[in-house]
Amino acid sequence: EDPLAILSRFQQYLRINTAHPNPNYYEAADFILSHAKSLSLESQTLEFVKGKPLILLKWPGKHTYLPSILLNSHTDVVPAEHHKWTHPPFDAHLDHNGLIYARGSQDMKCVGLQYLEAIRKLKSDGFEPARTVYLSFVPDEEIGGHDGAEKLADSETFKKMNVGIVLDEGLASPDENYRVFYGERCPWWLVIKATGAPGHGAKLYDNTAMENLLKSIESVRRFRAAQFDLVKAGLKAEGEVISVNMVFLKAGTPSPTGFVMNLQPSEAEAGFDIRVPPTVDQASLERRIAEEWAPASRNMTFEFKQKVSVYDKFGKPSLTVTDSSNPWWALLEGAVKKANRKLGKPEIFPASTDARYFREQGLPAIGFSPMANTPILLHDHNEFLNKDEYLEGIDAYKSIIKTYASFVEHTRDGASREEL
Ligand SMILES: CSCC[C@H](NC=O)C(=O)O
Ligand SMILES: [Zn+2]
Ligand SMILES: [Zn+2]
């Protein structure tokens, strides 16, 4: 097929404005459904929450008893500051260097459509899957996924799908190897609050709210620096340390001209975006927060706006095993190799994706977006993807989907289930 036709379908998807806070979900749904129809895939629109359609597509496999493959992607994108872009973020402009500029070109409309294009190619080759392949196009990932992937993973529909492996998004790779993720850090959004006696701005006294809060901030900063040093020294990867970033400070007594300057306030608070690797002992971080960052002895309290457990529902760290006990790894590696590409060392995703809802269920989930030789531009201005990288990604998925969908587990005596 003419690559321009393939690229023009990608551009069409990118031109649908699904940015928060008002994503045009129905237009995206119609677009995906029309593709599904042209590919003769079974389709279903699930609306767990009104106005937020989730599209589920099915390519039935020959062996319905085998666990299925789920290819997940989110249809929403983060907002863009239009005037700061070289090309408008929803034009999907293809420039003379072959770069397609658009919000969602990396995160992650590329992947959603690459799945479909790969299936289009496999179908035209006459390939028939042994395992059922599902595709989910979910809303709301960028705002937490609660009305999207989380509801899907908790649903009866999902149980019936008998999913055995999930593929979801990864990150672009500046070098020639694709990046691949076996887990992700858990978001803990912490608010700490200090109280203290108010008093005259000229008076030095102990236990003010500001002083109490500052002691905590100093303690958090020391911890942050120590974690960051491990990364700077090359001892740990970004996803292997706990990140803590202060995201707001709130204190002071407002006045018509700003803040009252000679009054020490009785309350002060700060917010932190903390990301916790699933390899971390959760209880010890909880103790640190309660004893060092917000100790009651210093008149401090704390609250989590969000706190995702590092453990799955069976109490195990929410990580997908990367050794030989998980055949999907070797299969992925082999399939990527067949497409003449290589995978980097498995990493922990530094932020959050919908994959956590599937790992939470105890399922293996792999984060992977086939973008090599590409700067990491997700959520940035001028997000772009090279057209050839996009097209090669389709071939990578073609190989992966073919490999995964043909995989028939072998029993210990070497006979496949099919033969038994
Ligand atoms: C934790 S809910 C928000 C999810 C968001 N995901 C992508 O950026 C993130 O901040 O990681
Ligand atoms: Zn994403
Ligand atoms: Zn994102």
From TrEMBL:
Residues given in the record as Zn(2+) 2 binding sites: D107, E142, H379
Localisation: Cytoplasm
Cofactor descriptive note: Binds 2 Zn(2+) ions per subunit.
Protein's GO biological process: amino acid metabolic process
Transmembrane segments annotated in the record for this chain: none
UniProt-listed Gene3D superfamilies: 1.10.150.900, 3.30.70.360, Zn peptidases (3.40.630.10)
EC number: 3.5.1.14
Annotated Zn(2+) 1 binding sites: H74, D107, E169
Enzymatic class: hydrolase
GO annotation, cellular component aspect: cytoplasm
Protein name: N-acyl-aliphatic-L-amino acid amidohydrolase
Organism per entry: Nyssa sinensis
Domain of life: Eukaryota
Cofactor(s) needed for function: Zn(2+)
PANTHER family: AMINOACYLASE-1
NCBIfam families (alphabetical): Ac-peptdase-euk
GO molecular function, one term: aminoacylase activity
